[in-house]
Amino acid sequence: MERGRGALGPALELVHTGRAPTRAVLTSELGVTRATAGAVAAELEALGLIQVDARPGAPAGSQGRPSHRLSVAPDGPVVLAAQIHADGFRAALVGLGGRMVATAPGCMTVPSDPSHIIDAVVEAGAGLLRETGRRCLGAGLAVPSAVAEPEGTALNPLHLSWPAGAPVRTLFTEALAKAGVPGLGSATAVGVTGNDVNLAALAEHRHGAGRGAQHLLCVATGHRGVGGALVLDGKLHSGSSGLALEVGHLTVNPAGLPCHCGSRGCLDVEADPLAFLTAAGREPGPEGSLLQQSRELLRSEYGDPSVRAAAELLIDRLGLGLAGLVNILNPDRVILGGLHRELLDADPERLRAVVADRSLWGRSGSVPILPCGLDHNSLIGAAEAAWQPVLDDPLAVLG
Amino acid sequence: MERGRGALGPALELVHTGRAPTRAVLTSELGVTRATAGAVAAELEALGLIQVDARPGAPAGSQGRPSHRLSVAPDGPVVLAAQIHADGFRAALVGLGGRMVATAPGCMTVPSDPSHIIDAVVEAGAGLLRETGRRCLGAGLAVPSAVAEPEGTALNPLHLSWPAGAPVRTLFTEALAKAGVPGLGSATAVGVTGNDVNLAALAEHRHGAGRGAQHLLCVATGHRGVGGALVLDGKLHSGSSGLALEVGHLTVNPAGLPCHCGSRGCLDVEADPLAFLTAAGREPGPEGSLLQQSRELLRSEYGDPSVRAAAELLIDRLGLGLAGLVNILNPDRVILGGLHRELLDADPERLRAVVADRSLWGRSGSVPILPCGLDHNSLIGAAEAAWQPVLDDPLAVLG
DNA sequence: TGACTTTGTGCCGACGCTAAACAAAATAAG
DNA sequence: CTTATTTTGTTTAGCGTCGGCACAAAGTCA
Fold it and tell me: B4: which nucleotide lies closest, measuring CA to C1'?
């Protein structure tokens, strides 16, 4: 009777990622008949998730009957997304399509007790929901630490002065329950929590510079240390216990600084913002995160020989690490975030040359290396993770 | 009308890997009704792929009606599998379940022209088919080199004196056509060709020490260099262009030997059979492969302090490399082959300790490290790759 | 204005499954 | 030895979902 139940999830994902602007391409992307695609679109519209324009869209010189445009419902449900970083936190409501509907930055200093900041994050999010009156289908949180699966504990929140092993997922879920966030009573997506770089990679793959990539590698550095993430065939690969892509301990400078892991010259200590400031002969100042200070220095004083030399040194180290990763993972695209993105912008040719030189075959070494293309990609990624149950099976969530 | 078409492939894979010994477990594994599972089994039996025992199997003290055992058809179709290695080649006919039906080792010295040995391999396989009169549904070849996708060219056949970039898949397919191997006229699986360690990993996952693993990492060394492979959720991860898991150039000894890749102390030159013989103060002899000589030395003279010291040195280097891979890939099982398997057998505790010590968290470092569990796993893996189209959709092949 | 091209919808039938009743083959209990 | 129980396997009926097809709609091109 009702047609197009099996394809409901894939269809929503296509509209969500902007790959199905019309019912016609939805038909071909799903590999179903026009009748089925039409029924799917109608069902998604009835669920309030997508919108079908009444008037046909721009013909653009093409022949045939113009198609009605499909887009994400602008007033549809949202998810609560949040991110904790070195300088505080940010909470937001995010709709389908990665659209930020409302946001509340919080510049609170991160306390040593993770439950305090998580409570504050959730309270900010609940406030946004009250203000906007939006329906909420899930919640996601990005933390700057590896998150062990399936427990959801933060294993190395090095620069947050948190205790190792903090049960962030439990704290987040409990805070959501305590705050009485409407719509999250029985939702599947309550309290999705993950590593910030992992979630950023997911967001970049869906809405940013990673669109269309089959095997996407992301590497980024924010405050201290280096994080990595891998998206395979649209799915985040976080390993069997959530600890994959801990790329910070690749050796990139055998005679380098000692690292807390017991080795020397790890990417973590040789290619993060602190390493850059040190290499440029600057003392980290008290104001702003190390990333902000590094970015400022790189952008405004790139003419200074010591700054330029420091940048080239970090590019060379980063390139060595990337080459190792490319040899192991053979991605078809690499995206850089944080300071690494700035370094790429500063001298893209140098970085690409180092990677190509150290890769085993020109083939894999010529992989495109791009800057990340989204603002707040960790936050959007947290939203993506929260949306996932809806994308998998809209009917199961919205029955 | 006909029941159980969609589940035909998954059902065959369950019987193939021994995870569905009866129709009852087939029912629960597939998540379908008994009726559907029964129809699926009947269909597979009608296709000549599986066998349903006439007499019920061992009751084993259980209540209820005893179930009939499902097994792979012993006289069913086969695939042609072949492997080329440093000492020559081996061809075999392999049935479902990884059963070797007939085999023909060839100890020919590998010539510098790859087409000669590939022709010889195919001729040997065709001879086996003529002798046995079996129906052949596909063919697979394992080569000791990275194989670029989608071209199917061997990029680094270092110890075969082949030219880099030899089009092994084309050569294999053409040789199959020339030899007139019956049943391969229009088969989808004609000329599946891949890296030997990759295929070995696939075989270990299906029939060997990797059964049940979700994220399986395999590392092995045969003659020269070190190879790696990763099986994710039952599927081989070979990267976007077939070049993933080139693990040989992880740095494991910063002050070590120069490597052709331009770096020093790579796993490739620090943890292969030649490195072991050298560390033990032995000259490689003219007879037998370096793996055979190393294995002999390790097994018969482990009491000799220089041999033992060499083994421990290689274990430490291998452990360092494995720790790096574990940090990046976070597998839930690691399998070692070739000389690495011998080193593991020689001192399992030492290797596990090194890996655990260098892993970032005890959690990921305590990953089980096991010796490979199959003889001729690359050969069986080549057969698995050849079987894949049948496992994906039996009707499409046997229509 | 009419032919053509492409998009969207309604109807029917077929395919592949579930559900449920029934049958079969063993063990356990009386 | 008979009967109840448990688990497995089969048959039948029915239904949901999708493909095929015809038709309608809305534009371009000649």
Answer: C16
Q: Does the distance separating the beta carbons of B240 and A331 come in below 8 Å?
A: yes
**Assigned domain for A399 exists:** no
Same-domain check for residues A253 and A175? no
CA of A1 and C1' of D15: distance in angstroms?
A: 9
The answer, for A292 touching chain B at a CB cutoff of 8 Å, is no
Q: Are residues B321 and B348 in the same domain?
A: yes
Which pLDDT score, from 0 to 100, does residue B127 have? 95
Answer yes or no: is A3 within a domain. Answer: no
Q: How far apart are CA B84 and CA A267, in angstroms?
A: 38
Domain presence at residue B206: no
Beta carbons of B377 and B200 less than 8 angstroms apart: yes
Segment holding A176, helix H or strand E: helix A168-179
A99 interfacial to chain B (CB closer than 8 Å): no
Q: Are residues B190 and B217 in the same domain?
A: no
Chain A interface mutation, best of B328, B355, B366, highest count of A Cβ atoms under 10 Å:
B328
Range of the domain at A339: 211-371
By the CB < 8 Å criterion, does A151 face chain B?
no
| Mean pLDDT over the full length of chain A | 92
Question: Which helix or strand (DSSP H or E) is residue A295 part of?
Answer: helix A290-300
pLDDT in tens, B278-290: 999 999 988 878 9
pLDDT of B143 above 70: yes
What is d(CA B171, CA B157) in angstroms, rounded to the nearest whole number? 15
> What does the DSSP 8-state code read for residue B75?
T
Q: What is the CATH number of the domain that holds A105?
A: 3.30.420.40
Residue B190 vs residue B195, higher pLDDT:
B195
Residue B175: its H or E element? helix B168-179
Summarize pLDDT for A279-336 with one digit per residue, the tens: 999 999 888 789 999 999 999 999 999 999 999 999 999 999 999 999 999 999 999 9
CATH number of the domain that residue B51 is part of: 1.10.10.10
Of B237, B261, B361, the CB nearest to A155: B361
- End-to-end alpha-carbon separation of chain A, Å? 17
Q: How many other CB atoms are there within 10 angstroms of residue A368's CB atom? A: 12
Q: Stated in angstroms, how far is B360 CA from D22 C1'?
A: 65
Q: Higher model confidence: residue B243 or residue B56?
A: B243
Last residue of a domain, one of A46, A72, A98: A72
**What band does B59 get if pLDDT is binned at 50, 70 and 90?**
low
CB pairs A-B closer than 8 Å: 118
Please judge whether A244 and B358 are an interchain contact, meaning their C-beta atoms are less than 8 angstroms apart: no
In terms of domains, do A126 and A243 share one?
Answer: no
Q: Within this chain, do residues A126 and A46 fall inside the same structural domain, yes or no?
A: no
> Nearest-CA residue to the C1' of C12?
A1
B254 vs A contacts (CB less than 8 Å): 251, 254-255
| B19 and B82 inside one domain | no
* Total number of domains constituting chain A: 3
User: Mutate which of B252, B267, B327 to disrupt the A interface (most A C-beta within 10 Å)?
Assistant: B327
Does residue B36 lie within 7 Å of nucleic acid chain C, judged by its CB? Answer: yes
User: What confidence tier does B187 reach under pLDDT thresholds 50, 70, 90?
Assistant: low
Q: Is A71 exposed, middle or buried (0-12, 13-18, 19+ CB in 10 A)?
A: middle
